[in-house]
Amino acid sequence: LGEPPDVAAARFEPVRSMRGALFNPGLDYLAFLAPALVPTLLSIFVLVGAVNALGSELRDGTAGAWLEAGGSATRAVLGTLLPQSAWFTALGLAATAVLFRLLGVPLRGSAALVALGTLLLVLAYQAAALLLVASSGNLRLASSGAAFYGGPAFAFTGVTFPAFGMPLAAKAWGAVLPLTHYIDLLVSQAMRGAPPSTALAPLLALAAFV
Question: What pTM was estimated for this model as a whole?
Fold first, then answer.
């Protein structure tokens, strides 16, 4: 058309491709791994702590007196787990604050939704611990179940390997881990800056565990 070369090139390729990592163009491993590793460790601490707190009553033969002192099973369980709920939630919030405030990991979304998700993550893993202890009736078996359930959880969350490429069994296992839904929430709010409406599904999933 008789155009200069730069104009002709722009007309020939009006949309240019950008090759790089979405939301992390600098390939910062701290921003990639730390937001996932911190809640992974927290989930293991919560799970093992709750299993030990509940299962020790069975191991020591004090379950009857424990339930009677509480007046009901619900009160006894709440009295045992609520102090841990407060402690681990505070620990989780402090850890995320260190990530976002001191280490410079970006928080592009809602801090309130991340805080709510942290609370639900703690409660979800305490609920899982209660299920393990109640179904096994034995501290040793419940501890083994906790190790099986919480230990390899990080591999199934879709962080190191995308979930859409996993076999169906791996996807199903990831779906029954509270950690998967929390990391989905955390990555969406922290790295992607997704709108708050996208947090509804992971928050409902965490609440369902509770």
Answer: 0.84
Interior angle at CA 164, CA 159 and CA 166, nearest 5: 80
The pair of structure tokens assigned to 43 is 């989930």
The model's pLDDT over 113-166, given as tens digits with 9 standing for 90+, comes to 999 999 999 999 999 999 999 999 899 999 999 999 999 888 888 777 888 888
DSSP the chain: ----HHHHHHHH-SS----S-TT-TT--HHHHHHHHHHHHHHHHHHHHHHHHHHHHHHHTT-HHHHHHHHSSHHHHHHHHHHHHHHHHHHHHHHHHHIIIIIS-----S-HHHHHHHHHHHHHHHHHHHHHHHHHH--HHHHHHHHHHHHTTGGGGSSSSS-GGGS-HHHHHHHHT-HHHHHHHHHHIIIII---GGGGHHHHHHHHHH-
